[in-house]
Write a structure and sequence with these properties.
This protein has one domain: Rossmann fold. The protein is built from 7 helices and 7 strands; from the N terminus they run βαβααβββαβααβα. β3 and β4 form a beta hairpin. The longest helix has 22 residues. The two termini are 14 Å apart.
Length: 217
């Protein structure tokens, strides 16, 4: 039976750089021949009709837990803990809807997960072995979000600003920022903090190595 995978959760506000941190960790771990899988919480938005029903015809708040398929993500984390493959949803941000499923993702020694609400929700938080919070100033976060949503998702500047004011910021203050208290490690500024990344890589590799030693006793 394969060793139990190590689940590493990365949280931060929208535009904090958590996706870049996750990608950098995956790249470094793979260079060290540590089998690593990356999962993003954004892929687990619930189907559009389900989300609309949960908000009762009101405007959808995409930063609220009700916008996500938490049961599916929790089930996938449980499956990954058992060393089983999972099929991640395929989500289209231009349609705001799920459009299919990815090919099965094989079990790995390390699973890196990143998303807004991983620590705020116990059904996800309690399954994580290491919890990292990327702490970036609000002005940097909003600038990054504007750049991403206008260039990559075809949004207008006005719509991005309106969403930030009415849902992104309030949900950050209600769910994301308070969840910082659950973090094992807080990374200021994000991927630019090379020292923090070095510490994380060292810790993960040490844990993986110790598991391998135990499994061969």
């Amino acid at each position: 039976m394969a060793d139990r995978p190590m689940l590493v959760g990365i949280v931060g506000g929208s535009g904090s750089g958590k996706t870049s941190v996750a990608a950098e960790l995956v790249k470094r771990l793979r260079k060290k021949t540590v089998a690593t899988l990356l999962l993003d919480m954004d892929a687990y938005y619930a189907p559009l009709e389900v989300v609309k029903g949960r908000f009762g015809g009101r405007d959808v708040n995409w930063d609220h837990p009700h916008a996500f398929d938490l049961e599916l993500m929790a089930a996938h984390l449980t499956a990954l803990h058992r060393g089983e493959s999972v099929r991640k949803p395929r989500y289209d941000f231009t349609l705001s809807d799920r459009v299919g499923w990815e090919d099965p993702l094989p079990p790995s020694q390390v699973v890196i997960l990143e998303g807004l609400l991983l620590f705020a929700l116990p059904e996800l938080r309690d399954q994580l072995d290491v919890k990292i919070f990327v702490d970036t100033d609000a002005d940097i976060r909003i600038l990054r979000r504007i750049r991403r949503d206008t260039h990559e998702r075809g949004r207008s500047l006005e719509s991005v600003m309106d969403q930030y004011e009415h849902s992104v910021r309030p949900m950050h203050l209600e769910f994301v920022e308070p969840s910082k208290r659950w973090a094992d490690l807080i990374i200021p500024t994000g991927v630019e903090n090379r020292t923090a990344l070095d510490v994380i890589i060292h810790h993960i590799c040490s844990r993986v190595a110790s598991q391998g030693e135990v499994s061969h006793v």
